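Lab notebook, bench 4. The sequencing result for the construct came back, and we need a structural model before the next group meeting so we can plan mutations. Quick request posted to the team channel:

Model the 3D structure of this chain.
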Amino acid sequence: MNSPIQSNEDDLVFLDEPDASEASADSAAQGSWRIMIIDDDPDVHSATTFALGSLEIQHRPLSFLHAYSAAEAREILQKEKDIAIILLDVVMEHEDAGLQLVNYIRKTLGLADVRIILRTGQPGYAPEIDAIRDYDINDYKTKSELTRTKLYTAVTSAIRSYEQICSISSSRRGLEMIINASTELMATHGLHNFASGVLTQITSLLGLGCEGFVCIRPANLQNNHHTDDLQVVACTERYQSYQNQLLKTLQLPSAPETIYQALHQQQSVYEKNATVLYFNNTEKKDFALYLDSGVHLNEMDRRLLDVFCGNVSVGLDNVILNSRLHNYAFYDLLTGLGNRLKLLQTLGETLSSASKQHSALSLIDIDHFAETNDALGHQFGDLLLYAVAQRLFRHFGDNCQLARVGSDTFALLGHQDKVNPDKILELFTTPFEVDHQDVQLTATIGLIKLDEYDGDASEALKDTNIALKRAKTSQRGGYEYFTRSMGVEIRERVMLMHALRAAFEHERLFLVYQPQVDMRTGKAVGAEALLRWRTDEGKFVPPDQFIPIAEYSGLIVDIGEWVLRSALHELVTLRNMGYTTFQMAINVSQAQFSHPLFMQTLHKALQDTSAPPQFVELEITESMAMKDPDLLIKTLHQIKQLGVSVSIDDFGTGFSSLSHLQKLDVDKLKIDRAFVNDIQQNGSEGSIAKMIVQLGQNLGLSVIAEGVENDMQAKTLMDYGCHMAQGYFYARPLTQQDLHDWLKAGPARPAS
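Done. Here's the predicted structure in token form:
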């Protein structure tokens, strides 16, 4: 129980209230805190105004608005603004009238700042905790517990909260405008526009007629930690002449010193005649705003301004991130040139505009760059690419669009007079200085003229690449312009590739076998398995057309495994028919041979078919043998461990050296048909075939000739010492059944 003294000092507000004259809204002092009392009991209104009437909070008095029902309160709230506190009775017209009114205030009117204190005179009544939370009610009191001191405390706390929320809301609204505006700006100019937005918003937020500017560290110097290279990027009207100038060059006596102070301390500086706001960011990019008027703020205002700066810093991070993502998306980080996506964007704009006339696109490919990169290292290779980009930019950057569209491929888009292949190639006649070394490079170029081109950007780039590939095939260090015939040819190759894939999947490929004979007796010693393709229409596609397509597309690996298994199955079939010494020769492509699973595939095929390895011969080309000798030697050793023999097909066409040949663990050389055809009727030619036979004998290798078509060629080869051959003179490539019939017919005719 309270003592009489305490009771006199802290009376209950709603017990035995003395008479009090109401303070009306009309008589409220200017600049007062506005409090609205909503209660159906007039005595509550009187007691509240009496208790709070003389109270001042932060040197501002209180003024009151009165509503005696929820309906009356709705009408007043629609008209009146800037109400700080609502003292609301829970039970009025009905028991939840107060809560319904709170819902109307928060959701319908959207008044989020006003503080709401619920009061009830019914002992034991209290709204559910969930309702207090959901309706955003700030305080709850029963009238029986509200002493004058507790009412003072509740109102004072609510007003301070209201003041802080209003300040923060005001700052947040300004920040939202800045952030929303910054996200809509073009990313390439986002940082400058963001700075302008910050300058506009801060002067508006402070309500000052001051002038100022924003300075940042230029992007190309962002890793330099000195503060004497700041650049002015946004200005108010008074400082427009300083736009894009370096801070150290400005004729402002105290501004640079104050700005440097803020950057050094990493906090805002408030001087008598000037203010510098510092904006921190995760990129550590110096960003400061200078105002030529001092901002006189109390501690709370400064804290709120710091919150503003902190939120702006978050927006700054977003702008920097967007700018970086834009650079990642459209620019090559190594050279600073546009990338493939940027080129396609610019190329699309060119094709859809009048500038299409007399424009050209070129692709510039550095010759043998991969070898340079591997030999001298990737870091040196990057420096070399940068040097090439810089030279191209110095000569074409003012008139053309440049891009890096591949690891060592650059694009040049512009007027045909500028995009001139001779002028471009001339740039590569002078060595490039890289890491104190002179590096001589050559380039190959593919071009396309756009004035009569009908395709889109991606098609134009693709067709230019077709021209580049043609140039690389025909003349390294030269150039080719795209022609319609090139497009037709490449599209036919693509169609053929799809058709080949479908033919393989639908089992339209098959094997034929060309017998290999001992010319002395005419007896078959083996056969070479050859792949054939017959279309649905019954037409044959020549192997020299579809085999390169299969190799280029990578389909040759799957096809090669099928050929291997099919040939091994046929070998087993022939052995079961009694041809126990018959040998099966199977061609292996470069793609198969270099595949990491090739040995596993070969071993499993031998196991699955039960084919004897000693009667299996793999044929590799001479060019394969020379492409990667180390890999070849290692793989050949593994093949020989399985018991399989190896021959070199088309020998004499690959210009292999004898030193390489001696290192290879092979069993046989096959004389190419071109050298067999050189054997004339008088036998005076054919010296290359003769040398191959002698070379094989010297190395202890067997020799077989292909393409033998007449008796004279067979006899001459026999005279050279070559005893095995295959060709039309003995048998054409035969189907499985025809091979069986041919073998049953007995030996072929021996050479006379």
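The first strand starts at residue 33 and ends at 38.
Will bring this to the meeting.
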